[in-house]
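Morning. Coffee machine broken again, so started the prediction first thing and wrote up yesterday's gels while waiting. Chain of 435 residues, entered below exactly as on the submission form.
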Amino acid sequence: MRHVAFHTLGCKLNFSETAAIARQFTEHGFREVDLDQQADVVVLNTCSVTARADRECRQIIRRARRRSPDAYVIVIGCYAQLQPKDVAAIDGVNLVLGTAEKFRIFEHADWLTTRPARVKVSPISSAVDVPHASSVGFSDRTRTFLKIQDGCDYTCSFCTIPLARGTSRSIPVHEIVAEARSAAEQGCKEIVLTGVNVGDYGRKIGTSLLTLLKDLVRVDGIERIRISSIEPNLLSDALIDFWASTDRLCNHFHIPLQSGSDQVLKAMQRRYRRARYADRIEKISALVPGAAIGADVIVGFPGETETDFEETYSLLVDLPVTYLHVFSYSERPNTPAAGFPGSVPPADRAVRSERLRILSARKRRLFHESMVGSVRNVLFEGEGRSGLTEEYVRVNVKSDHSLEGKILPVAVEDADETGCRGRVIADERAREEAA
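Came back before lunch.
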């Protein structure tokens, strides 16, 4: 039996696509192994949001080669689409596939015997299909990432994603519902809806994210629906109202901010301003009390002054945001921002990033501590003694047996920045009944 190893960089959408490709290999008789094990084929699904992601891609390829020097190395994903020649030039790479080609690996019938690097990358305009992708049966059996949309029609001045993934495209509602039913039949309790711009779902096919959610909450067996990320300008009152009306949608929102300065938001070509962002957060806080709210923030964007940064910092201090994903601005080729004046020195970017990371750690810890003394429903994973609340907070418990795949009430007793600890109430009841 031949062996294949996978490694995924970047977003949850990439993870769902890797899972779909892994199933193709299984169907062709391959057995999946870890990257650090001996493999005949290595598939690396790349990200290219930042320069760091590019460097990490090269490091992973070299790591795979050290463990499996004779492996056939295939590189797919955003970095492969944007910089195919650079990827092909990395020692050990055999095949580079673009966005339109990555789901058709086995159509390249001679790829196992062709050793020199080959590049199959079409212009991004040729990426018109939306191949299905879910992580059902891949890694975690209790929750699955379900792709509903790909590409983006926005023109944010710092972003390469439209160049790497093309225009916004959606999978029809009935097909997504069918995949959710299949996930439920295989024991998944939670689905995570992924895409590049999830809030834009359905616009070109006469439907909407709200319509999709109304159908998905009726799927038997799926107890939780989580949305990976949604733009603030697409988070409508109707969507928040529906979110608050159903217990199937997790009390967890991830809403990119990028900057709290209107001047910087305008330069970024974002489709909202700070007042709109604050209004969305405050509405969520009022209608979904106790919700976890995450935000992406970019610091050091060209032209960002100390005053601009302080506007971002003060906004995040005041809003009930519970955690931050902080990125130092990274110049990306072929984006308008790469040529903007007012470059912020790397040392200043680092200082601003650190301030926000400290703020995030403080907010995250306070949020976790607010759960102490409460009872939370936890979906247990892996060996079944650790799992996630609706709010995406990690909870660890002590138990005499595996709880994997179960959603159980847990009394939260302690918390820190990393998560919470508690006791399973169901275990307690069982011991009482046994006594």
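The chain has a mean pLDDT of 91. Going to sketch it on the whiteboard this afternoon.
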